[in-house]
Amino acid sequence: MFRPLPSVPDHPALEEEILKWWDDRGVFNALRERNRGGPVWSFIDGPVTANKTLGVHTAWGRTLKDVFQRYMALRGFDQRYQNGFDCQGLWIEVGVERELGLNSKREIEEYGLAEFARKCREKVAWSAEELIRGSKRLGQWMDWGNDYYTFSDTNIEYIWRFLKIVHDRGWLYRGHRSTEWCPRCGTSISAHELVGSYEERTDPSLFVRFPLLDRPGQSLAVWTTTPWTLPANVAAAVHPDKEYGLQEDGEWVAVERYPDAIFLERRRGSELVGWRYEGPFDHLPAAEGIEHRVIAWDEVSMEEGTGLVHIAPGCGAEDFELSRVYDLPVITPVDEGGRFYNRFGWLHGLSTSESAEQIAADLAERGRLIAADEYVHRYPFCWRCHTPLIFRIADDWFIAVNEVRPRLLEANATVEWTPAYFGKRMDDWLRNMGDWNISRRRYFGLPLPIFPCECGHITVIGSRAELEELATAGLEELSELHRPWIDAVEIRCPACGTEGVQRIPEIGDVWLDAGIVPFSTLGWENPKWIEGGYGNGAAKGLTGADLPDHAFWETWFPASWVSEMREQIRLWFYSQLFMSVCLVDKAPFRSVLGYEKMLDEHGRQMHGSWGNLIAAEEAFARMGADVMRWQYCDQPPDRDLHFGYGPAHEIKRKLLTLWNSVGFLVRYGNIEGFRPRLDDLGAGPAGIELRPLDRWLVARTDKLVAEVTAALEEQLTYRVIAAFESFVDDLSNWYIRRSRRRFYSYDDAAFRTLWFAVVTGLRVISPVMPFLADHLWRNLVPDVCDGAPESIFLAGWPEAREPDERLLAEIAEVRRIVELGREARSTAGVKLRQPLRRVYVRGAQLARDHADEIAEELRVDEVGFDQGPVAQVRLLPNLRVLGPRLGPKVREIKAALERGEAEELGDGRVRVADVELEAEELIRGERVEISGWGIANDLALSVALDTEIDPELELRGRVYELIHTVNTMRKDAGLELTDRIVLTLPDGDDLLRHEGWIKAETLATRIEPGDALAIAKA
Ligand SMILES: [Zn+2]
Ligand SMILES: [Zn+2]
Predict the structure, then answer these.
(1) Comparing 573-577, 659-663, 972-976, which segment has the lowest mean pLDDT?
(2) Quick one: what percent of the chain has pLDDT higher than 70?
(3) Which ligand neighbours the alpha carbon of 442 most closely?
(4) Model's pTM, two decimal places?
(5) Ligand 2 centroid – CA 494 distance (Å)
(6) Which ligand is nearest to the CA of 105?
(7) How far is CA 299 from the centre of its chain?
(8) Rounded distance from Cα 356 to ligand 2 centre (Å)
(9) pLDDT tens for residues 713-751?
């Protein structure tokens, strides 16, 4: 016996139950055991930042990872299942700062770096637990507890080693650069961190006068949207090849920008070069000794502003480059926190944004302001704390990329990207990226192992052992490789022997932490396997992960597959590729599945403050993990996902069709005592005569397996969903619908075929919906078949056999004819229950052997092929063409067309009133109603339904109505499907002419005359 199913599934409840059962039975471990030693499929998990609970965004990626891991496991592949956490760097710091109420780097230092580091670790430990809990609830199968943590000493040492190699090749250098800078975080921001950080913002727009020293009464007019950079001005740039003009008010501007202006004098930009002017803030100490002059610059834009650009090399990347070309002084106006230095007089201590208004007012007061307005533009914000970024000159550590760039491009060419354009994006990035800025002026992160000695020698330490060898002090307290403990370690310079050499204080870019993972977690060049060897440093006690040996790395590197969202192209995918090419000259992954952004169901960004953010916990409770997973998988990866409860509701509705089909099998299987055979799962029911419809369902199931397998091989989960939905529709709305009666009286072939199809369908959808699939599997298979695997995940992947395409096409045509027939009925306004005399079909290629089924489905007595009326449209003469050709004869043609006297000659040509007309000489109007017929057609098929209802048909129509009414009454009365009844019919009813039929369809033992329609249990 199957367990009876409730009328609707309670997704969250059955999921909790399955989770517990998986756990109790050790199903995941059994699966891993089963596949151990099998072919290797290496997935490497991109680390999730451990500073939060699981969100629906993260759950998307985790679902895709789980779907493909489950699929490959079902196919027998051996896998590692290691989950990873990103544990250090600014993400973690910013969260902890907020919790502690710290607002600046000074406050962190006052709080104490050791205590701060402890808090960061606590945050990671908390978040890791939360993320694991949420991921388990999502159904993700991972080797939980053996996760990698990027702040482990092992991970850090591997990065040290990488940096040492990079240094040995001469690629590591310290650069004095203008860089995007977050004034709140007090650190530079690397180019790849700017991805997606631009937002619209309104800034002041100032037009400012720079008086020319040698041309009294004349000024340069410049435009800026960053007033705080004006005190650092040293030059004004013009385009050397553009024309500039002097306006009546004494201001020089680009002629092109002021087409309506009157100019007193015109000069080429190159002629302006060298003109000296009075700077906007020459009275401040910082501007002392600066000579301001006009320079030439080909990049000056004629798209906005005045065509003259104010240059402040301390506040912009391009300005800084120009300072190198023209040997301009560099004034850095603001400190790490974005506040003016004291050499800027009254501006001292103001932030860049606070100063804007006061600078404008000051300029106005001194007669330097031409105009002030507002300007809306795209501006970069800090991706962690959302502070607007500024440009600042800083000393940072870089890895030079030019030498390795061609090899990166070559390596990327070996990677298979889905969607393909993501690979192109990576190529673009690799071609255009600048040197990698790897240093950050922060606290809890990868300590850069760089020890510069006064003698000029730079020591880059490659491991803890090397550090210990060179250390002269500070090892005692070094329990983990983090600040502040590492700061106390001093070394002896191997070049000159000087002792007490200190590390630079900077920490590393977090993408170094994540990029090294394909080496640090797989034991690259590690001589001996160390059990639990990965869980050291800050990761001690958080993970039991081993540090494998080099042979293991050889087996599992490169990854067969990785999957993350698009922004990771320039982040994790990039840093991994970079480090891997540097270390072993090879791409670290063979194939990548990327995907776009998640928005809410209305296409808006999800934001906590907009109230449209969905917590994963809430989604688990309200829609269930299977429904979430379905929603994620239904998404083509090249489009944004619109996630929400609306789509979830729609999915539940679709799943109900599947549920009802299984329910049907369970209900009648139990009534009729059906015993399935496990062997049927191989190739469908064998040793029994199947009817054509059964053979069709077997073929249809084969096709499903083939389609889903192909879709998963191509990493396109949305095609899995599409294939499954269409299969369930065929199963429910064709097979079960057409075979219903065979289940009412035991038909072994029907039961076995349906069971095979349902169970196989569950098997192929199980990676997407593991809970529902295993829940139903347990009921339909191991509970009733001896020796069956207890979980669907221990049953392997069904073999994709070649489906019988001819049979499938035949039934597809039949279904299409039936659909058109129903359409014709509804256009003619005839109820579905009303029997009709005949239907005529034209254009059918394959459906001829199925006349009986078509007749039954359309409730007609007779089906005819290639006869009957054809759908016609009203034809009108195209007067503009025909008038000139035929003159007055057109009237005759028009009259003939109105009478319908037209003969189709093919290709759209028609003969009317003895004239042959070309297609373009006629206008095809609306469909012509043919009295007594309902007609529907598509490009290939035309279906005509005889809609005439004679008294005999009318009576049969009423019998169908009666049967329907009685069966509804049976249901309302709570009768079992097998209960017999006594039916009372009102006196003298002519329906009794069909007594036998009515009895059979309503399970009535007898029919009694009476006053009103009634039923009673017999
Ligand atoms: Zn910031
Ligand atoms: Zn030295």
Answers:
(1) 972-976
(2) 100
(3) 1
(4) 0.85
(5) 7
(6) 1
(7) 38
(8) 46
(9) 999 999 999 999 999 999 999 999 999 989 988 899 999
- Yes or no: say if 811 and 51 are a contact pair by the CB < 8 Å rule: no
Residues 6+ apart with CB under 8 A from 296: 237, 238, 239, 240, 269, 270, 273
Q: How confident is the model at residue 827 (pLDDT cuts 50, 70, 90)?
A: confident
Q: Residue 453 CA: which ligand is closest?
A: 2
Q: For residue 24, which phi and psi values (nearest 5 degrees)?
A: -60, -40
Angle at 527 between CA 521 and CA 529, to 5 degrees: 55
pLDDT averaged over every residue in the chain: 93
Q: Count Cβ atoms below 10 Å from residue 574 Cβ, excluding itself.
A: 22
What's the CA-to-centroid distance between 37 and ligand 2, angstroms? 52
- Considering every ligand atom, which ligand is closest to the CA of 188? 1
> Tell me, what amino acid is at 189?
I
Which residue, 591, 751, 582, is CA-closest to 680? 751
Which segments of 83-174 does DSSP mark as H helices, in order? Answer: 90-100, 105-111, 113-138, 153-168
Comparing CA positions, the residue from 568, 588, 631 lying closest to residue 429 is 568
Which tens digit of pLDDT belongs to each residue from 298-350? 999 999 999 999 999 999 989 998 998 899 999 999 999 999 999 999 999 99
Ligand 1 centroid distance, CA of 388 (Å)? 8
Tokens of 99: 């919790």
Q: 70: CA distance to ligand 2 center in Å?
A: 55
Q: What percent of the chain has pLDDT over 90?
A: 81
- 386 CA distance to ligand 1 centroid (A)? 6
CA distance 881 to 531: 89
What is d(CA 301, CA 309) in angstroms, rounded to the nearest whole number?
8
Ligand nearest to the CA of 459: 2
What is the 3-state composition of the chain as percent helix, strand, coil, each rounded to the nearest 5?
45, 20, 35
Q: Is the confidence at residue 941, as pLDDT, over 90?
A: no
pLDDT of residue 988: 60
HSE of 612 in the Cβ direction (CA atoms, 13 Å)? 15
Question: pLDDT-derived band of residue 910, with 50, 70 and 90 as boundaries?
Answer: confident
| Ligand 1 center from residue 195 Cα (angstroms) | 14
Instruction: Please give the average per-residue pLDDT across 481-492, as a whole number.
Output: 97
The b-or-e profile of 706-728 (16+ CB within 10 A means b, else e) is bbbbebbeebbbebbbebbbebb
Nearest ligand by distance to the CA of 197: 1
**Ligand 1 centre from 50 Cα, in Å?**
18
Q: Give distance in angstroms: CA of 361 to centre of ligand 1.
A: 29
pLDDT at residue 978, as a whole number: 82
Q: How far apart (Å, rounded) are the C-alpha atoms in residues 838 and 854?
A: 11
Please state the rounded mean pLDDT for residues 215-225.
Answer: 95
Ligand nearest to the CA of 498: 2
Ligand positioned closest to the Cα atom of 455:
2
Cα distances (angstroms) measured from residue 736 to each of 385, 507, 662, 676, 758: 58, 65, 10, 17, 11
Indicate which ligand has the atom closest to the C-alpha of 497. 2
User: Rounded to an integer, what distance in angstroms lies between the CA atom of residue 663 and that of residue 908?
Assistant: 52
Tell me the one-letter amino acid at 315.
C
Which ligand has the shortest distance to the CA of 452?
2
Find the 189 Cα to ligand 1 centroid distance in Å.
9
Q: Which two tokens stand for residue 488?
A: 């106390």
Ligand 2 centre and the CA of 445: distance in Å?
27
Q: Residue 479 Cα, ligand 2 centroid: separation in angstroms? A: 27
What pLDDT shows up at residue 188? 87
Q: Which ligand is nearest to the CA of 500?
A: 2
How far is Cα 182 from Cα 666, in angstroms, rounded to an integer?
63
What span, in angstroms and rounded, lies between the C-alpha atoms of 932 and 953?
15
Give the Å distance between the CA of 453 and the centre of ligand 2: 5
63: left (phi over 0), alpha (psi -120 to 50) or beta: alpha
Give 495 Cα–ligand 2 centroid separation in angstroms: 5
